[in-house]
């Protein structure tokens, strides 16, 4: 096999696009080192081109994980000041890495009554921006550049495979799935787009509640989320996602995080059910943040995340209201949110617009 002779301008350029790894006869993983580099680089470069990011402008954003790391990497390379607003979901290792890259991290220790930690973080972002003369907020939830940035991934998939019959991935801010899925649909309108969410996430109609599975799901409805793009929605719990993450490592030697495990659980099922269709699954980030948790058997046992047997198929329901606490599937059918029976009523978080304006 020939060795790569490519050189890159920066580490973010080198790590941005995924490696496409064969995981089964008709299943490929789009394996990212850090998927959030795609929107972080695109959004900041576009802001620079528009004159919104001067030398004195402070970048301010809300994050509880990998988007913050991607921004910190890009901001360090661009020599821009960065303030990140986070919550207790951020672990000590990530905190140290962010601060080592020069970011200032502000913590919200209590969730807001409406919108949970996302709501609390948006409130803090608004306060910080009001106190500074010049700021730029990447607005990962509402900035259309988030979704647009992933068209480069869709182009990569089309160049490699021609037609992709099914794209599977987790949904949080909705940028990756709406951007990549929408880009694929421009080439092949039949492409199925399957979103993977966590229970007690409002994105696809469940009531908001505590979620131990992080990196997907949301307590708010991002403007980037186009419900009419999705053919199916699957919800899974943390234990199922963690077990599949470990299985992905043991069986394919892919050391990824639990969002990858959740997506792979669904993609593996779809590929087996559709042997003549080519499926690509988005695997967002590596597993190093989770060595003391998901990859630690003692931690899994102590926190009640041990499965006697991994599930092989989901329970199919007709409404989000029927979803239990295990792997569940709903045929969304490219409907709008309001067209789906049993969804919780959508409410607008007033601080979202204030924080991002």
Commentary on this structure:
- There is one protein chain.
- The chain has helices at 11-16, 37-49, 66-78, 92-100, 116-130, 144-149, 151-161, 175-187, 238-252, 258-273, 297-302, 350-356; strands at residues 19-24, 27-31, 58-62, 82-86, 104-107, 135-136, 166-170, 192-198, 232-236, 279-283, 315-317, 328-331.
- With 357 residues, it is an alpha/beta fold.
- It folds into two domains: 9-30 and 141-337, Rossmann fold, CATH 3.40.50.1100; 35-134, Rossmann fold, CATH 3.40.50.1100.
- Strands 1-2-10-7-8-9-12-11 form an eight-stranded mixed beta sheet, sandwiched between helices. A four-stranded parallel beta sheet has the order 5-4-3-6.
- A hairpin with a 2-residue loop joins strand 1 and strand 2.
- The longest helix is centred in the last third of the chain and has 16 residues, at 258-273.
Number of DSSP E strands: 12
Specify the helix fraction band: 25-40%
> How would a crystallographer describe the biggest sheet?
8 strands, mixed
CATH fold-level name of the largest domain: Rossmann fold
What CATH architecture label of the largest domain applies? 3-Layer(aba) Sandwich
What is the name of the CATH class of the largest domain? Alpha Beta
Outline type: globular
Which sequence of strands runs across the widest sheet? 1-2-10-7-8-9-12-11
The averaged pLDDT comes out at 92
Domain Tryptophan synthase beta chain-like PALP: 36-267
Pfam families: PALP
InterPro entries: Cys_Synth/Cystath_Beta-Synth, TrpB-like_PALP, TrpB-like_PALP_sf
Protein name: Tryptophan synthase beta chain-like PALP domain-containing protein
């Amino acid at each position: 096999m020939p060795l790569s002779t490519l050189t890159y301008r920066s580490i973010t350029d080198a790590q941005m696009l995924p490696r496409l790894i064969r995981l089964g006869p008709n299943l490929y993983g789009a394996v990212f080192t850090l998927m959030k580099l795609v929107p972080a680089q695109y959004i900041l470069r576009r802001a620079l081109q528009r004159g919104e990011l001067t030398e004195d402008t402070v970048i301010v954003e809300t994050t509880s994980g990998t988007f913050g790391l991607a921004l910190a990497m890009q901001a360090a390379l661009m020599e821009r000041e960065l303030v990140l607003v986070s919550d207790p979901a951020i672990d000590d290792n990530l905190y140290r890495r962010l601060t080592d890259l020069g970011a200032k991290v502000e913590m919200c220790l209590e969730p807001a009554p409406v919108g949970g930690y996302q709501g609390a973080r948006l409130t803090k972002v608004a306060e910080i921006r009001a106190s500074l003369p010049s700021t730029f907020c990447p607005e990962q939830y509402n900035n259309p550049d988030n979704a647009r940035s992933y068209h480069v991934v869709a182009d990569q998939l089309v160049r490699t495979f021609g037609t992709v019959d099914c794209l599977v991935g987790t949904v949080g801010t909705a940028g990756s799935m709406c951007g990549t899925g929408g880009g694929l649909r421009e080439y092949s309108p039949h492409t199925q787009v399957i979103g993977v969410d966590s229970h007690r996430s409002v994105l696809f109609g469940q009531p908001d509640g505590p979620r131990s599975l992080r990196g997907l799901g949301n307590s708010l409805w991002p403007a980037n989320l186009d419900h009419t793009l999705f053919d199916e929605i699957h919800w899974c719990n943390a234990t199922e996602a963690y077990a599949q993450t470990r299985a992905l490592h043991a069986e394919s030697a892919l050391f990824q995080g639990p969002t990858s495990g959740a997506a792979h659980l669904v993609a593996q099922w779809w590929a087996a059910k559709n042997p003549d269709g080519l499926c690509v699954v988005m695997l967002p980030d590596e597993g190093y943040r989770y060595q003391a948790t998901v990859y630690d058997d003692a931690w899994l046992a102590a926190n009640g995340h041990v499965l006697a047997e991994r599930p092989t198929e989901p329970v199919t329901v007709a409404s989000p209201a029927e979803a239990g606490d295990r792997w569940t599937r709903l045929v969304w059918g490219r409907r709008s949110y309001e067209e789906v029976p049993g969804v919780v009523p959508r409410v607008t978080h007033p601080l979202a617009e204030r924080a991002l304006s």
